[in-house]
Amino acid sequence: MDKLYSLDNRLQLCASLVRPSARLVDVGTDHALLPIWLLKHGKISCAIASDINSAPLESGRANAQKYGVKNIVFRLGAGLSTILADDKITDAVIAGMGGEVIAQIISDSGLARDKDLNLILQPMTKSEELIAFLCENGFEIQKQKCTVSHGKCYTVISASYSGNAVQADGIFPYIGKLDLSDEYSLLFLKNHIKHLENKCKGDKNYLQILNELKRLVIL
Ligand SMILES: C[S@@+](CC[C@H](N)C(=O)[O-])C[C@H]1O[C@@H](n2cnc3c(N)ncnc32)[C@H](O)[C@@H]1O
């Protein structure tokens, strides 16, 4: 059996937001590195590794065999459609996809509205769209953390359904629950600012948001 790998900072941050002894689904698992690592460290009780494409699932299966992991099940299908009530999933990771894809996966699933389900979401892009979707559709963001992995800054959000929808306008979707005293969160916000500066070259509608965010960074 091969020696276990370390997770990179991005997946490590996702792992840190999974609750102890969770029954986990990893949606868009690809290589299944996250559930295998969590199982090998005894941090979760079981895992479903789910993916819309069969080739990634095959690489996940090969990794499970390589590292001698047994209590992992592989399922082929879109989003959370592969999960049954009997699976009694407590935590769902959806990582490594665009914010709008993650929002669609949550929107398509009744299961995501289980108030006891801990959603751990790692958007590669458009985190502001995901945050606005969550708030406006009755999800409460519990934590938002950031890290740097392979020279890029990432954010990870934990959220669950509360049923209380709130409007998410102005700068809120860009700030979410970022703790701006944390260097990586500040870097994440600075990346939003750079992105908005480019956007404002063609579309002045974002100028007010850009200026408000810039003020926050200077303070
Ligand atoms: C870039 S990989 C991310 C792998 C891993 N989650 C990570 O963060 O390192 C994206 C994976 O999501 C899968 N995927 C894309 N859309 C999906 C969907 N709607 N439902 C399930 N899986 C999806 C792709 O097939 C691919 O394996």
Any idea of the CATH topology? Rossmann fold
Order of helices and strands: HEHEHEEHEHEEHHH
Beta-strand segment tally: 7
**The CATH architecture:** 3-Layer(aba) Sandwich
* Cofactors, ions, other ligands: S-adenosylmethionine
Structural class: alpha/beta
In CATH, what is the class? Alpha Beta
The number of helical runs is: 8
Helix content: 25-40%
| Number of domains as seen in the coordinates | 1
Provide mean pLDDT, rounded.
96
Beta fraction = 15-25%
Task: Name the shape in a single word.
Answer: globular
Strands ordered across the widest β-sheet: 3-2-1-4-5-7-6
Determine Rg (CA atoms, Å): 18 Å
Oligomer: single chain
The low-confidence parts are none
Q: Which superfamily, in CATH terms, is the homologous superfamily?
A: Vaccinia Virus protein VP39
The main pleated sheet reads as: 7 strands, mixed
Please describe the structure with a list of short key phrases separated by commas or semicolons.
single chain; alpha/beta; Rossmann fold; globular; binds S-adenosylmethionine
